[in-house]
Amino acid sequence: MNLILFGPPAAGKGTQAKRLTAERGYVQLSTGDMLRAARKSGSELGQKVAAIMDSGSLVSDEIVIALIEDALAQNKTAPGFIFDGFPRTVAQAEALDAMLARHGKQIDRVVQLEVDSQQLLDRVAKRFAEEGRADDNPESYKVRLNAYLAQTAPLIPYYEQKNKLRGVDGMAGIEDVATSIAAAIDAR
Predict the structure, then answer these.
(1) What range defines the domain where residue 132 resides?
(2) Can you give the CATH number for the domain in which 51 is found?
(3) pLDDT in tens, 12-22
(4) Which residues bind ATP (predicted)?
């Protein structure tokens, strides 16, 4: 099972991905984590990633796809993968589909955490007030949310058209969301 958890920042994707890795043995492929690991590795690809990141530029889709392809090769016995932070655009989704197809794989399910943007903003503001997390301040969250709405939300019709998208109530409690995600994954 190859899965994308889809939803705006602070929707709970990370929380649910951790549950799925623990409960089902899926491997979570976080592009941010993979980029940091590649950079630290000192490999040829890692040196390329470091140079791009140090210049302040965005790492190309081709490099991210290469990192994902490498992670798939390193985890051949995994029962599935959760894609986290990728794809973010239709072009990235098409590139991911093409790479997976070369390996006889595909995205099996896209689970959209359906959430209320204002309630998420309130959640982020509360977390920021209680924990002081710099990445959770309401102003930076609004920028991330707007980027998601502009760039990533167009993936919804892309995956709907492929009949892979399943929506779950992302505003429910953590256990209820997990149960809904399990049902969406297991539905045929």
Answers:
(1) 2-186
(2) 3.40.50.300
(3) 898 999 999 99
(4) 10-15, 127, 172
